[in-house]
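User: Hey, my collaborator sent me this sequence without any context and asked if I could get a structure. I don't really work with proteins. Can you help?
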Amino acid sequence: QDAQTKLGFVPEGKAPGHVAIKTVTQGGWAEQEDLQPGDLIIQMNDEDLATMSAARFDELIKKTRPLKLLIDPGDDGADGADQPVAADSVAAVSVAATPVAPAPAAPAAPAAPGPASTGPPGRCFELVKQDAQTKLGFVPEGKAPGHVAIKTVTQGGWAEQEDLQPGDLIIQMNDEDLATMSAARFDELIKKTRPLKLLIDPGDDGADGADQPVAADSVAAVSVAATPVAPAPAAPAAPAAPGPASTGPPGRCFELVKQDAQTKL
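Assistant: No problem. I've predicted the 3D structure and written it out in structure-token form, which is a compact way to encode the shape of the chain:
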């Protein structure tokens, strides 16, 4: 929040691409927030680092306060710095606070994925609908703006073949976040645009979590006939055992807000 203290960490490179934290300064703001080397910066002030320019990255990290950070705990170490990630549990914290998962996420057992999950718990996956002849095979529960839950899945359709389930959340379509998408753009993409890439968050908490902010730290691109599979580097990781950088359930992100411009990250 404040402009007096520095952020207190050194990033490992710059955008474009999600950036890992290289080192954390002892006694600094980042250490107070329990950030760790290997944690990934996914967004700054709601702007995704995957598509951010290096100049914009420098402007935000050096000059902009308040500065809101979306962090993915570095369960797999700093070498995963450029993995696409997203959070289904988000907590905004100030300089003096410790990030805490919001109340709705507390009862959920992170190690036990719901029936919709095709990968590790709390992780998203991508599906690519290539052809324009077959329909998507699901009915969305509403429209953007806001992440949209799948209401029903058509028996024998493409969505069922890809193991989509009622309650799964659509987070992005063609790399555009539904949180800020217009209803008209939503209709254009879902009805007319092919290929259509969907970023899906398995509905571990049911369809009532349709508007939770979410993102993925394990992504697999598949075609209409394929089944999404987690990429090889993620396979050895035990999803139920968060690394030392995690301050919440495994595979879940949290937000930090650095307000002042005086202390370093």
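In plain terms: Residues 76-122, 205-232, 234-250 have pLDDT under 50 and may be disordered. You can pass these tokens on to your collaborator as they are.
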